[in-house]
Amino acid sequence: MVDQYTIRQATVSDASLLAGQRTTLYADIIEPQHKETFRKSTEAAYKELLEKNTYFGWLLECNGSPVATVGLITRRLLPNTTNPNGCNEAVIVQVYTEPDYKQQGLDRRLMEAIIDWCRNRGIERVTLQANDDGHPLYTSLGFTPTKEMRLDVKQSEQTVQAK
Fold it and tell me: What is the Cα–Cα distance from 82 to 95, expressed in whole angstroms?
């Protein structure tokens, strides 16, 4: 049997699958006693975001079974010095491929589908945080590294109080 690959957009009914994959992605850094809580809260978040059309995901299926997924959240950026009219941005928040399907170009197919989707919807910029393994793919698609800083407000509050 020849493998048949299709890409489809995620629906609310995919929230459990997406949450399981996200839990797997972070398995090495989630304390074992918190994994199920993480998975359940992630599933609830996916359901909410998919219902509100603020999260968009795609599943690449092989013979009807999901083997790779990618998702993004969209937002509107205010005008700034490099883009005086502001712009619509998509933030990619999850790229996942089942271990047996890695190194087969599936991530590229999904990323190309997302980039086309963004282009067709007037989204002018796509960002993501990449691990070292993903850099070659993303740079080959035209992504460029940027410097970004982040503040964990809860943690910074505790740090400021301790000073």
Answer: 28
Q: Which residues contact 20 (CB under 8 A, 6 or more apart)?
A: 39
Domains: count for the chain: 1
User: In 3-state terms, what secondary structure has residue 79?
Assistant: coil
Measured CA angle at 56 (ends 151, 107), to 5 deg:
90
Residue 146 pLDDT > 80: yes
Which structural domain range is residue 65 located in?
5-162
- pTM for the whole thing? 0.84
Query: Beta 5-9 vs 125-128: how paired, if at all?
Result: unpaired
Q: Which candidate, 78, 66, 86, places its Cα nearest to that of 9?
A: 66
What pLDDT is stored for residue 150 in this prediction?
77
